[in-house]
Design a protein that fits this description.
This protein has 252 residues and is of the alpha/beta class. It has one domain: 2-enoyl-CoA Hydratase, Chain A, domain 1, CATH 3.90.226.10. It contains twelve helices and nine strands. The strands form two sheets. It has a seven-stranded mixed β-sheet with strand order 1-2-3-4-5-7-9, with helices on both faces. β3, α1 and β4 form a beta-alpha-beta unit. The longest helix has 20 residues.
Length: 252
Amino acid sequence: MTSKKNGTVTYSCKNKIGTVEFYHPKGNSLPGYLLKDICDAIKKGGLDPECRVIIFKSSGDGAFCAGASFDEFKKISNADEGKTFFMGFANVINAIRTCPKMIITRVHGKAIGGGVGLAAASDFCIAVKGASVRLSELAIGIGPFVVGPAVGRKIGVAAFSTLSIDATTWHDAEWAYSKGLYNKLAANSDELDTMVSNLANELSNSNPEAINSLKEIIWQGTGHWDATLEQRAEISGKLVLSDYTKKYIRKK
């Protein structure tokens, strides 16, 4: 779909299966422009009459997603800029939530911060066994406010509290699977691709009206998220300017 000097986002559709794929050289971290492109790509897939199901994935052999871009954090100079950046994650989560197509997320490596939020927001998430997770926001001085509704809804308050408060500990893929963040686990990348492909093919041949209705039921009760996530983005946008967070980021 688009190409950037410091990262890419693409959308393609083949045999009724859409694919949204992103890449950033720094651990698939996400600056604001990539978040916007991801949001646009998901919306494009949702409107594409040839697309029945969307696979959401990242490139490379490292992390699935390292979360927010620290380089972008360093550029934020006021609360409005901070809110705008965090709205990027809010907009992607809401695009996934409101997309009429089922979205299968393929997690091939570790997910950190906002990456955990993207996995949680997907309709079905398949991960490789090495895909550990960590919500590191509190350690940075921010807190997982924007991704909180998606993560908490998927894994429950107790597990979300564990991830949020114990912000420096990695939790393995088996833990994430046991809490419902991951719906299936694959032994390796080849098996991961097979599992994702098989499910996508099944859904692409299902009744699209039934899929759309099921998705509406799955996401029932989240209509307030537009306002809620905007409020959370405002909180994060202010906290990223705190002395604590600025000192933390300067060390990185």
